[in-house]
Write a structure and sequence with these properties.
This protein is 89% helix and 0% strand. By secondary structure, the chain is mainly alpha-helical.
């Protein structure tokens, strides 16, 4: 007996590689959208944004010869911005893939 997962897998295998990639991007975009809308997602985004602000303020006031501290603060900023950027990329990629699939259908 085929489960819904097996049926989906068979459907995906029957698609051409480009369509399969688009379907995967749509799925990741949907998951990212759900994550962003969730309590955990909102918390993580807020925490990342807050960490950037705090680290930037500290970086503006750190003494120039404190190289390790400067690097530590720069790394905090980079890490938080990278997290936000990856989420943004997933959302944009999902929207683009959705549009591409809709164009293929019409």
């Amino acid at each position: 007996m085929d489960t819904p997962d097996n049926e989906l897998q068979k459907l995906l295998e029957s698609l051409d590689p480009t369509t399969r990639t688009l379907v995967a991007e749509v799925d990741l975009g949907v998951q990212a959208k759900e994550f962003v809308a969730s309590d955990i997602g909102r918390f993580m985004i807020g925490a990342a944004q807050q960490e950037v602000i705090i680290a930037q303020e500290a970086l503006a006031n750190v003494l120039p010869w404190r190289r390790r501290k400067i690097q530590e603060l720069q790394n905090k900023i980079w890490r938080s911005k990278m997290f936000l950027s990856l989420l943004r990329e997933l959302l944009i990629s999902g929207k683009s893939a959705t549009s591409a699939l809709e164009e293929r259908e019409s």
